[in-house]
Amino acid sequence: MSNSYQGRYCGVCDHELSHGFFSLTKRSQTVTGSEPGVVLVSDDNVLTDFCGQECANYAEVAISSTLTSPYPAADVTVPCSLCLRPVDRTAPHVSVAMMQFEDASEPWLVSARVVHERELAVYCRSCAEPRSTSNAFDDSELGVAV
Ligand SMILES: [Zn+2]
Ligand SMILES: [Zn+2]
């Protein structure tokens, strides 16, 4: 039986992923003003996978140490994690998050569900250009239902 983590390896320790795994994702998103918390994702990219909490933490510390202002607040306007310029979340912007997945594959469907998500960084337009169309990422190829 195939599953969502088959053939994927940890970016830190090189072990094969198992039932519960983590992925660092970069996406272009827009927070809609009408309903708080609703996020439109126009582009989604998995950067690296991790086999477990320990390796995900290791990578998280390494990434946040390179940022000027990691772990942005949930406010509408937050400082860019690199240059501290204001980022308007209601306009398209790039966000990097650590996602925790749990495999939810069935014999007829390869999928995984998101258990936990933690935003590590948001970027202003001059630090990272948001993309409006999804072309680099193929859900069916990865088998992750988001
Ligand atoms: Zn690992
Ligand atoms: Zn910036």
Q: Mind sketching the topology for me?
A:
Elements: E1 20-31, E2 39-50, H1 53-64, E3 77-79, E4 86-88, E5 93-103, E6 112-123, H2 139-142
Antiparallel strand pairs: 1-2, 1-5, 3-4, 5-6
The chain binds zinc ion (ZN) (2 copies).
Describe the structure.
With 146 residues, the protein is mainly beta. It has one domain. The protein has two helices and six strands, in the order ββαββββα. The strands form two sheets. It has a four-stranded antiparallel sheet with strand order 2-1-5-6, covered by helices on one side. Strands 3-4 form a two-stranded antiparallel sheet. Bound molecules: zinc ion (2 copies). The site of one zinc ion (ZN) has 8 residues, from loops.
Which terms summarize this structure?
single chain; 146 residues; mainly beta; 4-stranded antiparallel beta sheet; globular; disordered C terminus
Spell out which ligands are present: zinc ion
Name the strands of the widest sheet in spatial order: 2-1-5-6
**What composes the largest sheet?**
4 strands, antiparallel
Unreliable residue runs: 134-146
Number of strands: 6
Structural class: mainly beta
Average per-residue pLDDT, rounded, comes to 87
Which radius of gyration do the C-alpha atoms yield?
16 Å
Task: Domain count, please report it.
Answer: 1
Number of helices: 2
Shape: globular
Listing every helix as H and every strand as E from the N terminus to the C terminus, the arrangement reads: EEHEEEEH
Proportion of beta-strand residues: 35-45%
Fraction in helix:
10-25%
Q: How far is the first residue's CA from the last residue's CA?
A: 21 Å
